[in-house]
Amino acid sequence: MLAQIEALMLALRQEAQPLSAQKLCKRLNVRMSTLLRCLAYLGEKDIAGQAGLGWVHSEQQGERLLLNLTATGLAACASW
Prior knowledge:
Blueprint: H1 2-13, E1 19-20, H2 21-28, H3 32-42, E2 46-47, E3 50-51, E4 56-61, E5 64-69, H4 71-78
Antiparallel strand pairs: 1-5, 2-3, 4-5
């Protein structure tokens, strides 16, 4: 899963605008369930009492889930 997380972060870093989860799945060739598991770890929301890293911001717009890096996520990418 570490390789998928790195690929997800790097793909989002290349985008100036939020990217839809569906497009990101296609670009990374991963299933939505895999992407959502990564987002549980990288996101800003608490899931089952566990805080995410806060590296990826997600926003629901209608049926689309839009993703982009937070300032903390950008800083994490810069350190790689």
